[in-house]
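S1.2 Input.
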Amino acid sequence: MDHPRPSEAEIEILRVLWAHDACTVREVHAHISREREIGYTTTLKQMQRMLEKGLLVREPAGGKSHRYRSAVAQEALQERMLDRLVDNVFGASVSKLVMHALGRGKASEAEIEEIKKFLDQLDNQD
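S1.3 Output.
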């Protein structure tokens, strides 16, 4: 099933759920509140919309509480969003994306070494 593309706020909620599996709204809100100021009702409303959009699934957690889980795997969403980014912003050119990302000077030496190792592995597969 192809889920709709989540907003930045929805991705923030998905990150919490991917890291902690199933959470109540209160737990998600607590995690997000550590990073930025946000109202509980805002988190609740976002998660209700995500449930309606098919991005989340809800299960009873006892009493009136519910636990929410992501309905989309992190890797699947990353692949879909990266494909769209490459196609729409970089004209389907992976090399332009990589050169742009590395040219910004934000990659650490360790990350660059990791990239080199990955490229060497790709070369050795041929």
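S1.4 Remarks. The beta strands are 56-60, 66-70.
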